[in-house]
Amino acid sequence: MSIPHTTTSADVSSEAARRRTFAVISHPDAGKSTLTEALALHAHAIAQAGAVHGKGSRRGVVSDWNEMEQARGISITAAALQFTVGDVVLNLLDTPGHADFSEDTYRVLSAVDCAVMLLDSAKGLEPQTLKLFEACRARATPVITVINKWDRPGREPLELLDEISDRLGIHPTPLNWPVGIAGDFRGVTDPDTGGMTEFNRTPGGATIAVGQALDADEAARRHGQDWQRAAEEFELLAASGHEHDQEGFLAARTTPVLFGAAVLNFGVAELLRAVIELAPPPSAWTDVERQPRPVDAPFSGFVFKVQTGMDPAHRDRLAFMRVCSGRFERGAVLTNARTKRPFQTKYAQSVFGRERETIDEAYPGDVVGLVNAHALLVGDTLYDSRPVRYPGLPRFTPEHFAVFRPRDAGRGKQFRRGIELLDQEGIVQVLVSDRRGVQAPVLAAVGPMQFEVAAHRLEQEFGAPASQESLQYGVARRVAPEARAVVNRQRGAEVLERTDGVAVALFNDKWRMRTIASDLPAGSLPPMFGED
Ligand code: G4P
């Protein structure tokens, strides 16, 4: 039975309208952690920079909870940070930086309404940025672009805009323009005042840097030619169709562009403003029947991520749920749309890395961490009074395959349990066949680091060290039922079954796959998802 409450749909609508749920996508080292920290700092969520993600001498906190993550200095898990600016509630979802975890990132991106694409001014678009941008494109998620590290020598801003438009096919519309070249950065133009915001270095970047506002005369006096050039270029860009276009942005055809230096907190206030003023608030989610469910409909939520072992002391399992409609109230008993079974929400938390706080209520756009969520899987829908089911998430096409076996035959049960949980969490995909048996499943991954995580966790969490044998397959396709047996007889190919029941054919390489496909009826080997 759910707890009755008196929230009206007007309350829920206005709560939804003041929320912005977004994630930062970038290539490792572009400055995502620094930017996250700077955003939180600006929002006064934390008193001193360094509290979110510690590197170097700064105080280490939260995203770094995982041992492997710390050892490697990469973020391989996702968490959500909530902060308030004025009347607006911002939910910033953390995305893993490493390319091997792009599937994980895709799941996080399924739960946001907007993405911030962060580029390094010297490097422009890097491989991981491209991949993550594609994930945004697949869902038509609006993207705000931030060109970071402008305090260092980098590339020409016009060249960077060209790269965005040529390689991503999205039209860049700068919201401001850098004064001075990268490396000799003077500030950014301020279209609202017709002047500029001057860039001041704050030593250490540990305090909020407030750029000084200069009017046009003052800007001309202090920055002479640099200012003239920036003002002219910005005007020319606006005249040649590069002005911000809200409709185009919401439809993911254009991307507003900002320039800054996250480590010095410069440009961060402008980004916050862009997120608040331009990013869309939560809106109706489309269910499996293709019906939109308005934000003020009775409660529903979508599980986009499941994580076990976040707290090494207890082997807990946490499901991250985005609220899609209605008001979430801790203690309510919800229904899992997949199993139709009840789910207790007594232990609901907001989670950012190790920091957890009990959450009592949440509104559309918010992320709730559900503790002890053993019955929940990625892609599950939970609802309160009016049933709904949202479409699940596609699995990426794996490119790496390895047979895992328990090293210690006596730990077979723990091994199987571990594999099952890693599968449910989506750490790896698990493929089985009668021929190979359950003690020798084939693990399939988008990137090989997923195997490392799987092996590490099997040993640490389940006490089941495993051996790995890489398989010489590089291409995976779905396989139509009538083609299964034929494909399975071929050299350089093998058919297995994924745990969700999808038959997957593996091939040595794409030439082998094409040769085999040419002897089969058209459509026998449909592509999976992601790379195709
Ligand atoms: P990531 O999460 O995207 O991987 O990047 P992260 O924030 O860790 O930043 C990567 C490096 O880039 C860090 O340097 C960080 O200080 C630096 N950085 C971030 N933003 C800027 C910027 O606007 N300008 C300049 N010049 N550097 C920036 P590091 O040497 O790896 O670490 P640290 O010891 O300096 O923290």
UniProtKB/TrEMBL annotation:
Keywords: Cytoplasm, GTP-binding, Nucleotide-binding, Protein biosynthesis
Protein family: Belongs to the TRAFAC class translation factor GTPase superfamily. Classic translation factor GTPase family. PrfC subfamily.
GO BP of this protein: regulation of translational termination
Purpose of the protein: Increases the formation of ribosomal termination complexes and stimulates activities of RF-1 and RF-2. It binds guanine nucleotides and has strong preference for UGA stop codons. It may interact directly with the ribosome. The stimulation of RF-1 and RF-2 is significantly reduced by GTP and GDP, but not by GMP.
Compartment(s) of residence: Cytoplasm
Record-annotated Tr-type G domain positions: 17-283
Pfam families: EF-G_D2, GTP_EFTU, RF3_C
GO CC terms of this entry: cytosol
Name the UniProt record assigns to this protein: Peptide chain release factor 3
InterPro entries: EF-G-like_DII, EFG_III/V, G_TR_CS, P-loop_NTPase, PrfC, RF3_C, RF3_dom_3_sf, Small_GTP-bd
UniProt keyword annotation of Metal-binding present: no
NCBIfam families cross-referenced by the UniProt entry: prfC, PRK00741.1, small_GTP
Lineage: Bacteria, Bacillati, Actinomycetota, Actinomycetes, Micrococcales
Positions bound to GTP: D94, T95, P96, G97, H98
SUPFAM superfamilies named among the record's database cross-references: EF-G C-terminal domain-like, P-loop containing nucleoside triphosphate hydrolases, Translation proteins
Gene Ontology molecular function, alphabetical: GTP binding; GTPase activity; translation release factor activity, codon nonspecific; translation release factor activity, codon specific
HAMAP family (UniProt xref): Rel_fac_3
Domain of life assignment: Bacteria
